[in-house]
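Help needed: design a sequence for this.
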């Protein structure tokens, strides 16, 4: 019995051994050389995330097939596997580059380690598309990848696919202004050196209508009353106070009010919320007998008239701006004015323009957008000078530009813009678009909802023929920055003819703050030492206190392709954002873009030193004089043309 048990155990063990042997033999129903799974292979650079891990942790070496040099002298190179925060410090500005290399300089046969190249994008435009491509010059000499990091070194977008092509392409749509960092790297171990190119392109965001802030303003009880025929009859009581609304930007309110012949009445608006009223009085024949905008204080209106009959007059209230809101209308009978000699107002000169008199902020003439308006410097009263104040309604998130044209001979206008009716709220201005163009132009990006004031003057240089001193003024708006009106270039020599409009009133002087050290310019791109020229600016009419000083600034940015250390035709770099800051507070005073010739000119209002910055080039310059003529030179690079 024991022997039989033993035999059974031996047989069972043999059968188990045979099953194990057959288990490990290949399955002849499939190929005997079946490929291993991608996750098990050690040679699988074409599958899954392995290539990205390889370029980070394993050294790749190139056996050079051609002589290789790097046009940037490898100053933006970083060893593979280095912490991105360390590599980002060596990034150069993102632009088009040629003759780049991922190895140090060498000759055929050299075996060199592959590094990564780093590029940086500052002041990205939110909503735009930045398209960056890395292209090997010999098609297969590199197998390139791109990874884009945000300011916190988080990966935003990448192209690390080794299968599709040897080139790499990413599209960055910024959600912040950055900075963003672009890493160019070799994906696979097959590398023969040589060069690659970096091509960049920019697509501006599709303009979208500015969203309208929805305000829940309900029609008042007198609606609809938008015409003479719909004007309700107001009760005969004095005084009468109505709580009213402009429930839409097109709303106009008409009323009829009963009066007695010979008596005096006054209509006024008050408690305005989001509106700017205009009051008009019409007689029974619908002829306007009185009109007022701001005599009620601020944007409120006030009209006084004497009734010439027993019967109804029309009281019409309009909104001077495209908004909705509420207001109160008060109509009351008043005591007749004290009898006495009525002063005869001085007549306005017949040749004065239609906006006169408009010599102060309070009398600023409202102008529309996108229309060519002809004005002149004929003083409406006396001998002048004729300072012309205008205002237009602006909204946040939009770009505005005003400029003059069609100047009569001898007319040389100057323009200054203000955020509000005060010299303290000056934004900046412009005298001449260029030395050969006496027109004035200024662009402004609005961050508020309200009035923008424009002053056009001629300072202490009166046009030789006042009767023929016309100029055309046009103001426009856009969702994108404006390009320059003319072709401004920096002034080579001081302009002794500079001037400012003569202000009517000025604010209390503010002590000049102590300047703080400016930001240091980066080593590259280099900037030539700008020639600072000082000119005497004509002093405004003497008043007890002086307004903030105005600093004219001219900027020229050029790529010195011929390396002659001066700007030449065709070397200007267009589209660069130039900022001006008050040094003491670091407040942004002005922002504009270089034009087609790489230049721009503007005037800023500041109490102390001003700092000029070009963020894309990491350039900064302190301005302490009365005027600055700044030239920024981008040196040529070896191995190809184009602007870095």
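Sure. Designed sequence:
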């Amino acid at each position: 019995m024991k022997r039989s048990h033993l035999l059974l155990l031996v047989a069972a063990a043999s059968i188990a051994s045979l099953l194990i042997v057959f288990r490990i033999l290949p399955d002849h129903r499939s190929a005997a050389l079946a490929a291993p799974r991608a996750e098990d292979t050690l040679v699988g650079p074409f599958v899954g995330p392995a290539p990205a891990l390889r370029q980070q942790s394993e050294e790749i070496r190139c056996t050079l097939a051609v002589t290789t040099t790097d046009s940037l002298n490898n100053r933006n190179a970083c060893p593979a596997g280095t912490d991105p925060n360390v590599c980002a410090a060596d990034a150069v500005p993102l632009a088009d580059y040629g003759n780049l290399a991922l190895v140090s300089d060498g000759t055929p046969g050299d075996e060199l380690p592959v590094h990564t190249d780093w590029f940086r994008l500052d002041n990205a435009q939110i909503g735009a598309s930045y398209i960056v491509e890395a292209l090997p010059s010999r098609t297969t000499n590199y197998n390139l990848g791109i990874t884009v990091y945000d300011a916190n070194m988080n990966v935003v977008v990448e192209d690390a696919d080794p299968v599709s092509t040897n080139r790499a392409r990413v599209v960055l749509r910024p959600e912040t202004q950055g900075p963003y960092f672009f890493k160019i790297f070799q994906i696979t171990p097959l590398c023969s050196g040589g060069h690659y190119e970096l091509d960049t392109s920019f697509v501006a965001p599709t303009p979208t209508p500015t969203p309208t802030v929805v305000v829940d303003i309900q029609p008042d009880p007198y609606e609809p009353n938008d015409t003479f025929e719909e004007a309700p009859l107001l009760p005969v009581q004095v005084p009468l106070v109505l709580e009213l609304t402009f429930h839409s930007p097109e709303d106009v309110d008409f009323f009829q009010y009963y009066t007695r012949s010979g008596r005096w009445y006054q209509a006024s608006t008050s408690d305005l919320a989001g509106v700017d009223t205009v009051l008009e009085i019409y007689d029974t024949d619908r002829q306007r007998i009185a009109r007022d905008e701001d005599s009620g204080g601020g944007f409120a209106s006030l009209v006084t008239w004497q009734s010439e009959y027993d019967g109804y007059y029309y009281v019409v209230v309009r909104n001077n701006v495209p908004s909705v809101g509420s207001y109160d209308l008060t109509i009351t009978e008043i005591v007749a004015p004290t009898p006495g000699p009525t002063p005869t107002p001085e007549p306005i000169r017949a040749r004065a323009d239609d906006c006169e008199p408009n010599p102060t902020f309070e009398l600023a003439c409202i102008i529309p957008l996108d229309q060519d308006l002809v004005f002149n410097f004929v003083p409406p009263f006396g001998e002048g000078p004729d300072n012309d104040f205008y205002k237009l309604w602006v909204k946040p998130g939009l770009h505005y530009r005003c400029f003059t044209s069609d100047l009569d001979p001898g007319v040389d206008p100057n323009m200054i813009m203000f955020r509000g009716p005060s010299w303290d709220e000056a934004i900046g201005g412009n005298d001449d678009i260029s030395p050969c163009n006496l027109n004035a132009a200024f662009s402004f990006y609005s961050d508020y909802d309200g009035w923008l004031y424009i002053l056009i003057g001629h300072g202490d240089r009166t046009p030789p023929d006042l009767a023929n001193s016309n100029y055309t003024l046009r103001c426009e708006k856009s969702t994108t920055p404006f390009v320059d009106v003319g072709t401004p270039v920096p002034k080579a020599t001081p302009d002794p003819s500079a001037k400012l409009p003569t202000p009517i009133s000025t604010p209390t002087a503010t002590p000049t703050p102590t300047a703080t050290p400016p930001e240091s310019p980066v080593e590259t791109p280099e900037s030539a030492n700008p020639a600072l020229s000082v000119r005497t600016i004509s002093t405004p009419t003497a008043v007890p206190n002086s307004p903030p000083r105005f600093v004219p600034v001219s900027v020229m940015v050029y790529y010195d392709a011929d390396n002659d250390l001066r700007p030449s035709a065709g070397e200007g770099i267009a589209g660069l954002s130039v900022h001006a800051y008050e040094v003491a507070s670091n407040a942004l005073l002005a922002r504009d873009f270089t034009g087609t010739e790489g230049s721009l000119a503007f005037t800023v209002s500041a109490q102390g030193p001003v700092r000029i910055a070009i963020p894309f080039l990491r350039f900064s310059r302190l301005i302490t004089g009365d005027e600055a003529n700044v030239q920024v030179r981008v040196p040529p690079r070896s191995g190809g043309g184009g602007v870095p």
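The chain has a mean pLDDT of 76.
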